[in-house]
Amino acid sequence: MNSRIFSRLAISAVLVVAGHFVGGCASGAAEESQQVTYTATPEEARRLASTDPVDSGPLQLYMNGLSCPLCATSVDQQIDNLPGTSDVRVDLKSGVVRVWIEGKERPSPKELAEAADRAGVTLVKITR
Amino acid sequence: MHPTTNHRVGPAALAVLLAAFALGASDARAQEAINTESATQPGVGTLYVKPQFRLWRYGVSRDPASPVQGVTRAEPSITLQYGIAKDWSLSLKLPAVVQEQTFPSSRNLAASIGQIEAMFKLRVYRSDTSALDTVRAVVYAGAMLPGGDNTVAPQSVDPFIGASVMLIRGRFGVTQSLRYTVTTGADSWKWIAPGVRSAADALRYDTALMYRVWPGAFTAENSSSAWYASLELNGQYETSGDNEILLAPGVLYEAKRFAAECSVGVPIARRVRDRPATQFQLSIGLRFVF
Fold it and tell me: Which end of chain B has a smaller Cβ tally under 10 Å, C or N?
């Protein structure tokens, strides 16, 4: 009898927490997710599809879906594998990946977006 | 009738055990739950190595045909998961099994390779809704393959299919997974408790809640590691009508190159007649990224 009551309570607790989560009532989660949501203007989206190499120097890559430290490593690896990239730094707080571009062979915005895609995240826009 | 102690440790089992210790132990990432199949994938060309140690304690079967009073089963394993294309990954789980069966007047200890699990996973949906938030869904299929000694592991090829959906929203993550395994062998539980007879198919239904305990918010200083608390409901329904649900709280530490996990599962709902009842389950694992 006790175990039946316990099991019902446990399942109810899990469902309540899940409902709370799905409903977006968790204030901490909502606050954090509302802080940074990147969108691209049509012009930024057009530039992201370019196959021309990016200029040398620092770049900031704005990404959505960077959920955890291991995701950051995955992005780091994919970007770092591209020619002409170095000093890749992933900031989980802002969802921004900073990378230094240098050399004869440099990636295009499209290649950077594809690298992010291979890592399982979405590159939204690129700025200097 | 039962030998007091029967050691069966084949060379293959030793090789797996040594490999497990050499590499550390088993698999996880991205608020990936401990016992629930997640909707995450390694990046293309990325290898995840997941050493894991699992321990089950099964109680006495109600089946009078089974002379077993209790079974303790340990399963060290290594899971290798590799991103073969953008939305595809392949994984291979190589387990060893060490099992002790308790009879009224004796014990039986055996060890061998367990059933090897080979699985393809395909991501069918991904929506990254903010810098941290994402929704992902995968379908997967594979088979449990014959391992080593037939005294502790099935010798049949048991195919399975499944699907998993994961939502990450700020500090919270929830994963729901369903997996159906077709039992092609004559008996799926006799390896654990001789005399217990069930060739039923199995539907696993797992729900996992993850909460990032620390850091509350990632900062420039605190974005290289995170602690998560997890709460899972791990259920298994069998076509014989047996059903069992474990409640498994756990903890996960995730850094940039590895993660460590631990959970303990206890039964909270159970109706079993044709299989031994789980008393508890312990999972300890590591995950490495290469």
Answer: N
